[in-house]
Write a structure and sequence with these properties.
By secondary structure, this protein is α+β, with helices and mostly antiparallel strands. It has a domain at about 10-105 and about 125-165: Peptide deformylase (Peptide Deformylase). It has five helices and eight strands. The strands form two sheets. Strands 1-2-3-6-7 form a five-stranded antiparallel beta sheet, with helices on both faces. It has a three-stranded antiparallel beta sheet with strand order 4-5-8. It is globular and about 50 Å long. The model has no long low-confidence stretch (mean pLDDT about 95).
Amino acid sequence: MSKPKIVQVGHPVLRTAAAPVPPDQITTRDMQTLVKRMVEAMRAAPGVGLAAPQLGVGLQVIVLEDDASRMARLTKEQREERGRAPFPLTVIFNPVVRTVGEGRATYFEGCLSVAGYMALVERDVAVEVTGFDDRGAPLRWEARGWAARILQHEMDHLKGVLYVDRMITRTLSSNDEMAARWLDVPIDEVKKVFGV
């Protein structure tokens, strides 16, 4: 089977609000096939989240996963600064996210649909998501740190919003420059260098 193609910025599906999936359709073969394709595309990229519009499908479905292997190169301090902790594959249909508390954090984000670039983006530190899992059962998850960031990023995709709409514009950089210069530097120092 060929690797699913991830839609790139400029395609109208990325700028259109996605439609909810009728709950009685979640367990159908079509929806289960879509979830399988999304997980395969996310893992192959590799990424930590993917929304259905990124495969050209305008439906409210997201997949997320962050395991220890994806953060193996990070030090303990870097994992703590980013609020990075492993979580298993999570599939959410018709997600609704609300902020929990008042904390906000700024960190680098990239996107599989905006290939080759990253920028600083401010997001809520903690959120609660509700929706349905891939079996059609109600789901509720209170996420913090990196998981909360991924959830907000993927939720934006379902609204036709990209991280570039929320980024601190003067920090937009190629992935190569970010990796070479900034990814191992504490975020407060990075913000000073960029004047933000």
